[in-house]
Amino acid sequence: MKVAVDLGTVANGEPAELDLEELLSTRLLVQGNSGSGKSHLLRRLLEQSAPYVQQAIIDPEGDFVSFADRFGHLVVDADRTPAELQRIALRIREHRASVVLNLEGLDAEVQMSCAAAFLNGLFEADHAHWFPMLIAVDEAQLFAPAIAGEVSDEARKVSLGAMTNLMCRGRKRGLAGIVATQRLAKLAKNVAAEASNFLMGRTFLDIDMARAADLLGMDRKGAERFRDLEPGHFVALGPALSRRPVAVRIGSVETRGRTGRPSLLSLPEAGGQAMHDLIFAAAPAEDLPPPVSRPVREHVSTHDLLGRVVAAREKPAPEADDERSEAERAALVEDIFAEMLADPASAFRPVPVLYQDFLTHCRLKRLRGAETDMAAFRRRLSLARAGVTAADADEAWQTVLDASDALPEDMQGVFLMLARAARDSADCPDDAALARAYGSHSPSRGRFLLGYMAERGLLTAEADFRGNRVVTILSTGWRAVQKAKPLKLDDARARRAARQSTKF
């Protein structure tokens, strides 16, 4: 099926059309300095072709997320692990969904790693899912740089490899690359050389004008015209566009990005002392962090505690005569566990010792019954260490509790702690916290516990592109993220120097 995409008009007012089917086989390169209208051109092309072909947009600035409202594109935020991005990419090809990979807010190295994982997932799809698909990459010089920059060699190598696969080997898999760059000199030659269609916008540097003119088959005198192009005007050439260089004026678009051409605004009237007060005003009380409240524990001497125990033994209260309701008794048990676990040393005390303390508290509160036996205590201790209360007793939690039965009793509390953090979208406990919940002082014990639970299919523990640990409870899909500690400047420099030294 032949589809002509309307890009705008040529010099004589006739429509400038792009053969979409030919583009799928020959790929497209767009070049123009900042402000020349590259993003506007991409938006026009993608809008006009959206009803006819599946699309994926690699969006480093979040400018194309508006496609979700107008054309139904899915927005894939890159705050995911490499394995998640590859799984999403495989499903995108299988179900022929158009998507926008939003990389906004990430630094350059993370953007490169995310884009590489996503493109590799699209590239490695099963042969049965090699449907035609346009892959538009804005600011392509970020993902396929011609020379090494501030990013690590590993990130550059992975990203450049994914972009090269897209442009060199993607055609047989139905992938047609559309790359836009500010300067051809910044873009890797292996990526630029595979495009057969070109749209060249305003360019000022001699080296870029010379390369653009060479690609379009123009002489040196003709290269000067690139300086005079207005924003939104391009020179087109290629089998999907025109057999000879032709000037094209890009038409209007239906959607708008978050950014655009800057325009002048009136300065605020406030100045002097008024502006000083606005800038240096004290933070409002609601923005201040709340005071940390610490539980106040009653100090009971050993003599008084033993006296209470003796008194409780002398006057036992039969369970049949207990007039308290079941809810009141459960609340007392909750209070006992809260009081016991408030002591930091309780994490490292053996379970039998804690059980004896628990029985002592039960006698003082005249509690007897099924909730005081050893089996119930072990189970309840695991829940208490994880911060699970009776209010959490819903169907999802029951699923987690059933899954924890596959673990040894001393590990169940650690698993429930992870599940509690994941359900509340709280920070994932670090290795030291996991080890402490297990009763160990060694952080390596926490890493062992995560690996042990992952091997038994209870959870997954992966690292995302920022180095954050992402723990997913498989039975419920809850996720908890442990933020990676930022490197100090000296550490970052030392690692960069170590990478550079390995070249020699």
Q: Number of DSSP helices?
A: 19
Which blocks of ≥5 consecutive residues have pLDDT under 50? 313-320
Overall domain count: 3
Structural class, by secondary structure, is alpha/beta
State the total count of DSSP E strands.
14
CATH superfamily annotation of the largest domain: P-loop containing nucleotide triphosphate hydrolases
CATH architecture of the largest domain: 3-Layer(aba) Sandwich
Strand percentage lies at 5-15%
Q: Give the rounded overall mean pLDDT.
A: 81
* Order of the strands making up the biggest sheet: 2-1-11-10-9-3-8-7-4-6-5
The end-to-end span amounts to 54 Å
Jot down its keywords.
504 residues; alpha/beta; Rossmann fold; Arc Repressor Mutant, subunit A; 3 domains; 11-stranded mixed β-sheet; 19 helices; 14 strands; elongated
Could you give a short description of this structure?
The chain has 504 residues and is an alpha/beta fold.
Layout of helices and strands:
Blueprint lengths: L3 E7 L4 E5 H7 L1 E4 L6 H12 L4 E6 L7 H5 L2 E4 L4 H14 L3 E4 L5 H16 L9 E5 L15 H17 L5 E7 L7 H4 L4 E4 L5 H11 L3 H4 L9 E6 L3 E9 L22 H7 L22 H13 L11 H16 L9 H14 L9 H12 L9 H10 L4 H15 L7 H8 L4 H13 L3 E5 L5 E5 L5 E4 L6 H13 L3
Parallel strand pairs: 3-8, 3-9, 4-6, 4-7, 5-6, 7-8
Antiparallel strand pairs: 1-2, 1-11, 9-10, 10-11, 12-13, 13-14
Helix pairs in contact: 4-5, 5-6, 12-13, 12-14, 14-16, 16-17, 17-18
Pfam families: DUF87
Keywords: ATP-binding, Nucleotide-binding
Protein name: ATP-binding protein
